[in-house]
Every structure is written in structure tokens, then in C-alpha cells.
Amino acid sequence: MDVHTPVVQDTQREAMSHMDRLLRRRPGRQ
According to the UniProt record, where is the region Disordered (predicted)? Predict the structure, then answer.
């Protein structure tokens, strides 16, 4: 098992939530 996998998944989750926040901030684009 890869030791770095949990870290990568956590980073991806953080990046996804950050992108989601940026997308929600954008006015009226769906």
C-alpha cells in the first residue's frame, strides 16, 4: 500500500472544496 495515498486524497479533497468555493463565488454562472 502506498504511504502517500491518504495525503494525496486529502489534498485532492482540499483542492476540490477550494474550487467549489471559487465557483460559488462567481455571480450567476451555472
Answer: 1-30
